[in-house]
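$ run holo --ligand "UBL" --emit tokens
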Amino acid sequence: MELGWLLWGTAVLLLLHVLMELSPSVNFALRIGFYCVLCLVASGLAAAACLLVNGGRTVKNMRIIRAVVRTFKYFFGVRFEVKGLENFKVEGPAIIVSNHQSILDMMGLMEVLPDNCVQVGKKELMYTGTVGLITYLGGVIFINRKSTSSAKMVMSEVAKTMVAENVKVWVYPEGTRNCTGDLLPFKKGAFHIAVQAQVPVIPVVYSSFTTFYNPKTKLFTSGKIKVEILPPIETKGLTSDDVTDLTDRCFNTMRETLFRLSGRPSEAKDSS
Ligand SMILES: CCCCCCCCCCCCCCC(=O)SCCNC(=O)CCNC(=O)[C@H](O)C(C)(C)COP(=O)(O)OP(=O)(O)OC[C@H]1O[C@@H](n2cnc3c(N)ncnc32)[C@H](O)[C@@H]1OP(=O)(O)O
Ligand SMILES: CCCCCCCC/C=C\CCCCCCCC(=O)OC[C@@H](O)COP(=O)(O)O
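-- output --
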């Protein structure tokens, strides 16, 4: 009986292996499917640990989530080369902005996430089962992208609480995933918060995934991601009139860095 199960198991694994070798689409679907299942299972386990250790929603839970997600890279053969971690060592709160390519970004996020740092996320994430639960427990700030006024209100509230509670806030200023190897124009919410709270902006850039991950061509293999944490950009003394200029400066610096890290020739472009 047990030998029968073993033989069936081996046959199924062999079949999956052959299908993955023959078809990039099957390979892609299986690997992404596995990533989602891993996120759901790991989130459930992490949520139990968070509730036991910290009792409810708190940024302290991010340490547990970070430790769990840092193991994911070994399942997918993703390697990180990180530079500039010292730039996170600013006194007090800060806004961290980074490029956003895929749901795989959660690995890159947790690889470098500093202590006392929460992310801004779309509210739909709350409804993704255990992943929603863990984002809630980790203190993620949810915004409704369909309502500018409500999103702006939440962001302005963040500007006040981040100073009072001494937390850093991680925002994806492109506002959505973009796996083209370039940046989308930046939305200004993150820069408004930085100016309102008079805290520095720390840009973080991840090299393009396109050499090992591309949903359009169904590519998903192992690969290396270069990460660079750039020096903080001060906002002391800036007013809302300076937000557009601050956004453009940050966009241009990050775009140059993205191209350099991805081995792509640079070209000038406006953020608008
Ligand atoms: C085991 C574990 C498994 C996994 C565990 C994972 C845990 C971690 C989870 C991490 C989650 C990460 C999720 C990532 C995302 O969800 S990304 C998508 C959501 N994020 C964003 O959208 C952020 C970026 N967007 C913005 O900043 C936008 O500006 C926004 C505030 C949302 C408003 O957008 P929109 O409606 O499109 O309006 P505009 O951007 O066009 O802005 C309109 C005008 O308003 C001005 N503005 C914007 N914000 C403010 C503000 N705070 N105060 C004042 N004014 C503001 C803006 O400048 C525009 O005016 P002008 O055109 O400049 O005149
Ligand atoms: C009971 C309900 C069950 C629902 C199951 C849902 C399955 C989802 C399972 C795993 C998904 C893993 C997601 C990890 C978190 C990723 C965060 C993220 O990258 O969000 C994308 C968001 O930034 C931008 O969204 P869009 O690009 O605008 O779109």
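-- notes --
Strands lie at 78-83, 95-98, 117-122, 141-143, 168-171, 201-206, 213-214, 219-220, 223-229.
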